[in-house]
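Worked example

This section walks through a single chain of length 296. The input is the sequence exactly as stored; nothing has been trimmed or padded.
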Amino acid sequence: MIYASKQKPASFLLILTEAFPSFSSDSWPSGTRVALCVSYYGGDFCGWQAQPHLPVATVQKTLEQALGTVAATSVTTHCAGRTDTGVHGVAQIVHFDDPVGRSQKAWVMGCNRNLPPSVRVFWAKSVPSEFHARFSATSRHYRYVISNRAIQSPHHAGLVSHCRRPLDEQAMHDASQILKGEHDFSAFRAAQCQASHPRREILDISVKRVADFVVLDVEANAFLYHMVRNLVGSLQMVGLGLRPETWIEELLAGKDRTMGGDTASASGLYLQSITYPKHFQLPVNQTSNALFLGGG
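Given that input, the structure is written out below as tokens.
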């Protein structure tokens, strides 16, 4: 089967994994729980989650088909964070139970041979049976990238969002600091959100400028549906001078989503990395962080 991606990979996005890794050819016992690091260009997919009743491409469906080819039987995956249509994954973490007993090399190289160019598996590791890609995670890190110039380069289409008016990134950063800590984030929660409660803890958040790009990084224990994109939409209003920095604090206290800014485009959002307890010894703890134009 021949696959064609709508976009080339982001030239400014580098994954800090070994350039020429070696993978063991020794088979793991059947039933071994396996963790994978998966990277993908979200513009080719209708989100992460498989939609079996709809004829659409999703990352989960595409990955499970490739894994199933390697295993010669069906494989079900579980991910750390489900991304929406158009959202990119730099180091998504996935786990599954090996149904037949394949090797590390088979799961990485064999899977990649059966994937489109817009999806790649970077490593596979056997993990304890209690490991769960979603429930074992202690935090998730998202990055949002805005091309801030009058005319956007066509080479960045689908890879970043665009704001044609100058943004004050320092005002955006200062306004964002009130969001640190545990809060009720109803003001930044989409109406379709199915989470049982709106409280989340933001561990760190920053906004900086890298050349013609404004980059927001945010790490939290978990996120609500559209939470990052809604945060960006409101912070952009501060950056444009349409609202004062104190407005973000007012939104947070008001808990009313209808009072905030528009939901920012999905194309600028990247699931950057997932953090797990060190005893799982996942490579992601050391090597999955990404660089954006030299910024760590």
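What to look for: Helices lie at 59-71, 104-113, 169-176, 227-239, 246-254, 284-287.
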